[in-house]
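Hi F.,

I've been meaning to write this up properly since the lab meeting, where we talked about keeping a consistent format for the predictions we share between groups. The idea is simple: the sequence comes first, exactly as it goes in, then the structure tokens exactly as they come out, then a line or two of notes. No screenshots and no reformatting. I'm using this chain as the first example so we have something concrete to point to.
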Amino acid sequence: MDKKKITLKDILPLIILGVLVCAVVVAILLRGEKTKPESVSYYGLFDTETSFTDYSGMDGEEFGEICGELYAALEGYHKLFDIYNEYDGLVNLAAVNKNAGKGAVRVPEELVRLLEFSKEMYTLTGGEVNVAMGAVLSLWHERREAVKMGEIGTLPDSEALARAAEHCDIDKLIVDPVNMTVELTDGEMSLDVGAIAKGYAVERLADILKAKGISGFVINVGGNLRVVGEKPSGEGWLAGIENPKSENGLPYVKEMYISDTSFVTSGDYMRYLEVDGVRYHHIIDKDTLMPSGYFSSVSILTEDSGLADALSTALFSMSVAEGRALVESLSGDRRVDTVVWVGLDGEVTTFEAE
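Output, unedited:
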């Protein structure tokens, strides 16, 4: 039976509600700002809130044109990386998944680039970030969606999870950058780029701004924060990681000044399934096929937003020692400046690169 296509109109009320009730995990703090920056917000793309903020002082017309270009680019990535809906005239990830086991599919270049980056992140994280885990992740997604439709929360069947895990071999994702094709050689596998796509798209928006010579600009897509350049004064922005254990009265677990970098947090309190009073978050451990049980949040400060997105997910399923060893091994354009782990008990551990 064909599934009903879900449109933005159908889910927009839920998105707006989610934005209202969920704290943004990484925030720019405006304490001490003498003038109010120009800012605009949008809802729906990548199922979250997006904001563009200019601190450089460009006039309203130029700001509107820049925001229009950024929004159009982000909307393009949203559709291209969508695994639930197909769009007329576009071969996106939903179409690739639909064609699993049926041969190679010619796709847009940007999708090839994303999947090449995804394979690189798989290797870099020792398999902790695996976009080929769609068969497993879809079972958890179905349970969360069932609750939204009014059903009682239940966990995915363990045997079904085990069967799905047999179809998550990333080596069966064949990416051909010469012919611009993608092939899933296992007919039962599917791709889910949720751990990477948003950060990757945000970094491409930063590329647009840098190509135009624009500095003093902040992109925030659902807590994936990318600051381009610095303020005209030469200062950075004061950024805070919101406290997932806010009942202790502390709004932020850490604050720091940042410039020309990205700041991304993965948390266990933004998307979850509740069963018998227990919350099961959306970051699934590749070994247990269950939600990772190490932390409440992991935040990454590094220049590339796609890398930050991938690492915040990967480190969520590692001990602090394992995660620290990974980030210390990275250098050059993969260098990580800061990691902040918030444990299930609220304990905060910080890594700062030398």
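Notes:
The mean pLDDT is 89.
Residues 8-61+217-352 form a domain with the T-fold fold (CATH 3.10.520.10).

If this format works for you, I'll send the rest the same way.

G.
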